[in-house]
């Protein structure tokens, strides 16, 4: 009778995940570590078929600490925040919130893929809302086209939108500019504070890892 051999210890996702997954969980308020790769999110995601990653693949890359590949992906920008994934997910992993955080990190670290114009659109949209209190579509379109040089793209839709009054020449301006400025400033401060927290957590985790390595015989 052959001697019984001890089975290897099971590999836990928590063992695989490094600082990136931990920091992302802290910053986004949802845990990628709960995902067990059932792929239900991807089967319902409206952009999974046309993007460079599917939702469950993004989460797996986070598990594996593939920070740069994640932050350079188109998928984080193409997510429409439709919430289908979290509705279907048995573990309630909020990929939508993760993507919000990943976009912010991608912008801060200068890793935005050149295959997306979403950040340019987002900035033009927010600038318009900050200035006027609501978006001015014609101004938004002009700024977007000037910044991306996509002058002729979608131009066939302009006559129909003009005819239906969807592109007014002068947009409305809402009152409360000071209130809006304060709102945007507070949001920016909160974002910076959260980033500082995560950086501190990542440093602490790295120091703890280094100390544990040194203690090993
Ligand atoms: S549905 Fe949830 S558990 Fe399943 S792969 Fe997607 S994120 Fe992971
Ligand atoms: S929220 Fe984003 S990732 Fe989730 S299903 Fe919608 S598009 Fe896909």
Question: What brief labels describe this structure?
Answer:
single chain, mainly alpha, binds iron/sulfur cluster, Fumarate Reductase Iron-sulfur Protein, Chain B, domain 2, 0% strand
Q: Would you kindly provide a written description of the structure presented here, covering whatever features stand out?
A:
59% of the residues lie in helices and 0% in strands. It has twelve helices and no strands. It folds into two domains: 103 residues, Orthogonal Bundle (Fumarate Reductase Iron-sulfur Protein, Chain B, domain 2); 101 residues, no CATH class. Bound molecules: iron/sulfur cluster (SF4) (2 copies).
The value of Rg in angstroms is 22 Å
What would you say the CATH architecture of the largest domain is?
Answer: Orthogonal Bundle
| DSSP summary, beta strand count | 0
Question: What's the N-to-C terminus distance?
Answer: 35 Å
- Count of discrete domains: 2
* C-alpha geometry: globular
Q: CATH topology of the largest domain, what is it called?
A: Fumarate Reductase Iron-sulfur Protein, Chain B, domain 2
Q: What's the helical proportion of residues?
A: 55-70%
What is the highest CATH level, the class of the largest domain? Answer: Mainly Alpha
Order of H and E elements: HHHHHHHHHHHH
The number of helical segments is 12
Residues in β-strands, percent: under 5%
Structural class label: mainly alpha
Mean of residue pLDDT values = 86
């Amino acid at each position: 009778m052959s001697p019984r051999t001890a089975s290897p210890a099971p590999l836990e996702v928590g063992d695989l995940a490094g600082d990136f997954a931990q920091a992302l969980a802290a910053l986004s308020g949802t845990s990628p570590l709960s995902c067990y790769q059932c792929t239900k999110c991807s089967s319902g995601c409206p952009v999974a078929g046309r993007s460079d990653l599917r939702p469950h693949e993004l989460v797996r890359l986070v598990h594996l600490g593939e920070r740069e590949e994640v932050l350079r992906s188109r998928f984080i920008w193409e997510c429409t925040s439709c919430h289908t994934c979290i509705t279907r997910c048995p573990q309630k992993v909020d990929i939508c919130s993760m993507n919000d955080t990943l976009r912010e990190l991608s912008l801060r670290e200068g890793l935005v893929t050149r295959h997306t114009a979403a950040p340019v659109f987002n900035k033009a949209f927010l600038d318009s809302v900050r200035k006027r209190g609501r978006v001015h579509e014609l101004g938004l379109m002009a700024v977007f086209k000037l910044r991306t040089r996509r002058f002729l793209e979608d131009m066939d839709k302009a006559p129909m939108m003009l005819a239906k009054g969807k592109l007014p020449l002068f947009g409305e301006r809402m009152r409360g500019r000071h209130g809006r400025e304060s709102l945007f400033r507070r949001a920016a401060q909160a974002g910076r504070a959260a980033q500082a927290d995560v950086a501190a957590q990542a440093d602490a985790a790295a120091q703890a890892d280094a100390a544990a390595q040194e203690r090993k015989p």
